[in-house]
Design a protein that fits this description.
By secondary structure, the chain is mostly helical. It is built from 1 helix and no strands. The longest helix is centred in the middle third of the chain and has 38 residues. The termini are far apart. The mean pLDDT is 74.
Amino acid sequence: MVGWNLVYNLPKSLFGYDFIYLSYGAATLEINHSFDRFSEPVE
C-alpha cells in the first residue's frame, strides 16, 4: 500500500509545488512590472 500511497500523493504534491511556483512567478512579475512603471519618469 505504500507504493500506491506514493503514486497517489506524488502528483498532488507536484501540483502543489507547481501552483506555488506559478503564483510566486506571477507575483514576482507583477512586482517587477510595478517597479518598472514606478521608475519611469512621470509625464
